[in-house]
Structure formats: structure tokens, C-alpha cells
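BUG-276 | component: ligand-complex export | severity: low

The export step for N-oxalylglycine jobs runs without errors, but we want the raw record kept on the ticket for reference. Input record follows.
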Amino acid sequence: MNVTPYSAGCGALVSGIQLATLSDNEMTSLRDAFAEHGLLFFRDQDLPPVEHLRFAERFGSIVINKFFKATSDSSKIAEVRKEKTQQTNIGGGWHTDHSYDEIPAMGSILVARILPKTGGDTEFANLAAAYDALPPAMKKQIANLRAVHSNEHLYGENGVYRHTDLAEQLGGMDRVGDATHPVVIKHPESGRNVLYVNPGHTIQFEGWDFAESRVLLDELYAHVNQPQFTCSFNWLPGSVTFWDNRCTWHQAKNDYQGEARLMHRITLAGTALAAA
Ligand code: OGA
Ligand code: MN
């Protein structure tokens, strides 16, 4: 098994293995690589839904997304689908999956099923590297803050997704909710400090109003969204991506209008997040 950096500060490409037939030793190496990089890319995988499930269950325990449709293969596999005729895509802005949960998801395993001829990349950001590079004064300012993460503004009755052509494939309007987490967490596996706020779900700092929260959040987001912390993954048939939701952001590019794209996602359960 070979693990090579994907870009200077974001992700690693894992080659020389098949996720469907990992030996126990390979599984251990993969866990180590996942803890170190938080974002793994795989090419040329033969991972039909039953093997996607088997790999996920070997790695951890599965949580079900409250809003996405499940595949016909399994209620544990979510469809991330964009039809030819649809304009809006799922996950089109920077976000971290499930940060609105009290115990946020550990990771997500995304498998390409139908791809547009070109485009449809997924972009990622490394929030451990971004934290390390923050100016000392900013680290001090955010050290003891907590932030509120919600999904209501997206999936609630008046959420932005409900007014798009994505609405018909979304459920769970009545299952919206929020949670608060430390702004700087100690990553449960790597022990690194990580900036844990994201543009999709973080709505404010606890005890701050929206407007003053907005100013600081935007400053943090601009810092993260720089080339040295981000990368873009170009999907090919057989590509798989496995990211750690505690230390990454991602967003799906919507640059393939008129074509379909379908991905299968399995989400893995995490643990409560502790402050750094
Ligand atoms: C997701 C997601 C990105 C993509 O599955 O959580 O945001 O590129 N998908 O489809
Ligand atoms: Mn996502």
C-alpha cells in the first residue's frame, strides 16, 4: 500500500490496495493514514454497494443522513444525485457533513457511480493545517469560543434547499436541529488542534449575535479557503474518497449543467468533540 501526498497541504492518494479485499494489516495501515491525513483518495476501486457497505462497517459504525434519499440497495447508503435537468446540486458550498449533530459524524465514504463527461470535481480543505497557520492573535481570540451549528437554514421549511429543484429529493424537513461545539477541537485520533467551524452549518458563536459572529466567521473562512490548505479531486470511474469530517471541509462543484451525476455516500459515526 502506497500513501502519497495529493497536494502540498491537502489529502493523500492511496494506491496498491482494493478496499473490497483489505487484509487486516492493510486495514491498520489505512487507519493510520486516515488519522494522519484526514482525507484519502483511491482510484480504480471495484466497490459495488455491498462492498461499499462491508468496508464502511469494517471501519466503523454507520449513521444515516436525515435528509438525503437512500439508495434502493441499502437504507445505509445515501444518494448524492443530480439529474440532467436539475440546476442545484447537493453540497455545492463549503461544509462539513453532520456538524449540526450533538455527536458529529466521523467520516464519509463517497463512491462515484455516474459522472459527467467533464467537471463535477469535489474540493477539500485541511482544517488542521489551516488552524496551525492562523496568526497567534487569532488563535488566542478563538481559543475558548464555542459555535452553534445548524441545518434549519438549509433543510427546514424555509431553508434554502427547499426553494430549489433539489427539494423533491430531500426528506426530513421536521428533523432539523442544532448543536454547539468548541471552535478549536482536539482531534480524537491525531491529537492535533483543528478549526471546527464551516460555512455550511456554523451560524454563530455561542453568546455572540449574528452580525458580530459573521465578521469573525468570514475572516476564518477566508483564511481556510487558500490554495495551501485546499485541493480539488477529479472523479473517474472507480474513484473513492474517504474524508474525516472533524478536520476537513468539502464542496461539490456544479459545473456540468445538462449532465447527470450520482455518488453513493456512507457516513460513519463519530464521538463527542472536546475542546483543544
Ligand atoms: C457529500 C457531499 C460532495 C460531492 O456527499 O457529503 O457533499 O462532490 N458530496 O458530491
Ligand atoms: Mn457533504
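Assignee comment: Attached the raw record above. The domain at 2-268 is CATH 3.60.130.10 (Double-stranded beta-helix).
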